[in-house]
Amino acid sequence: MRGVIMNAINYAIIGFGGIGRTHALAAYDANLRYSLPYSLNLSYVVTRKPIQVNIPGITNVTNLQTVLEDPKLDFISICTPNESHVEIVEQAIAYKKAIYCEKPLASTLEDAEKMNKFVRENNIINGVAFMYRFLPVISLLKEELENKTIGSIIDFKIKIYHNSYLSKEKKGVWRTLKTSGGGALLDLGSHLIDLIHYTLGDIKEIQYQSRIHFKDRNEVDEITRGEMVLHDGTIGSVGVSRVFAEQKHADEFVLYGTTGSIKVDLSNPYILQIHDFNTGSTLFKAVPGNHPSMRFYPKERDSLGFFQNCHTASIIDFANKVDGVKDCIGADFGDGLKCQEIISKLD
What we know:
disordered N terminus
């Protein structure tokens, strides 16, 4: 936006709940840990009501236009409920600001289509926070698939199971409402659908089964399973839940091939499990410390947890994009729209 190298990239966070704070921490983590060609500066936090932000250099405002009018602002990070994304994007493009948006892109397919059209027609730099792309083990997986390590893919399964919506305290929160939330598939499944697109290719068709167990406190799906076929004919499945409690959540991506299998533990970003059918052995392959995927990802001993690490890496990738870097791997609004199209088939 302002040349290949700049002294500072300034951004504003719109919405300051849990995910907004994660995006904020990313700036400080990035500046302290990595040798960036710029300083990544969080300049504003935009909220509906005034709040106290006890961090020097950050201004809290309640009027988004005030922020967008700042000529020094390079991009905004949208961390508000899903149904508000389209309005914020429409407002931001008038000021030609780059836009980084939390997933899912929108609450409806119609809004996602509008948002993608807005940024495309106005040539706006854009990105979506599909942060699982930045797990180093996902880069390793892509390499093994390209090398045909397990032969041709017969089938695959990918799942994320959470338990937080077993709590009665979740009744009435925005994620439980049709108008603003979207359910387990839109909330969690969007990550998984993007990972499938990113590692294996586009989904051609999908059939879902979903249900709500706690009907008195939830309007949207709590559990969804989908059987799919990719454009190359590969068959697989996706599963998400916000009401499954286990001692350890086994969020995983398993691929079965003609000569073995590969398993990704989505909570362990450093190890890929490769099983060889012919020898009966299983290799636990570690991501090398000098692997390109580790450039903006900490070593295990320095980790803040994979969730924060991935968000930091994703925001650095987007800031690099704003800075003119061409080989960024983060998702854009087009990728977000593709996910929304697949999710909309649940209806």
